[in-house]
Write a structure and sequence with these properties.
The chain has one domain: 2-Layer Sandwich (HIT family, subunit A), CATH 3.30.428. Helix 2 crosses helix 3. Helix content is about 30%, strand content about 20%. It has a five-stranded antiparallel beta sheet. With about 140 residues, it is α+β, with helices and mostly antiparallel strands. Bound molecules: zinc ion.
Length: about 140
């Protein structure tokens, strides 16, 4: 048994502000966001790095990432967004369960990879979750 926080979120053993899930993927808010609405998309099964994920899971991962990005754009109205996945410690992977980041971006928002600068105040996590969930069309 791997001690992995994302496996625990996928199996509901650990809490998360879940935006969407199906049988293959789960989507939830990063609790230490680069910008509010920073979202993570993970395969529910444990794969350390992107190239290890089977094609049929990657299809869902990419399509769901696209749909959730649209929901973030429709709800939070950022000026742009980054989508990225860090693979391997040398690339900055902190949690060894492959995940895609969707980061809403604003002009002059001071983006940097580390440390993730923000946290949510009480109830804000759910409020952002509600805003984005309202716009999800899958
Ligand atoms: Zn895992």
């Amino acid at each position: 048994m791997i001690d992995c926080i994302f496996c625990k979120i996928a199996s509901k053993e650990a809490p998360a502000e879940v935006l969407f899930e199906n049988d293959k993927v789960m989507v939830f808010l990063d609790i230490n966001p680069i910008n509010y609405g920073h979202t993570l998309v993970i395969p529910k099964d444990h794969y350390k790095e992107f190239h290890e994920i089977p094609d049929e899971v990657n299809q869902d991962l990419i399509v769901v990432t696209s749909k959730i990005t649209k929901a973030i754009l429709d709800s939070l109205k950022p000026h742009g967004y980054n989508i990225f996945t860090n693979n391997g410690r040398s690339a900055g992977q902190a949690i060894m369960h492959c995940h895609f980041h969707i980061v809403p971006r604003y002009l002059n928002d001071g983006f940097k990879f580390r440390p993730y600068p923000k946290s949510y105040k009480k109830d804000e996590l759910k409020q952002y979750g509600n805003l984005i969930r309202e716009k999800i069309r899958i």
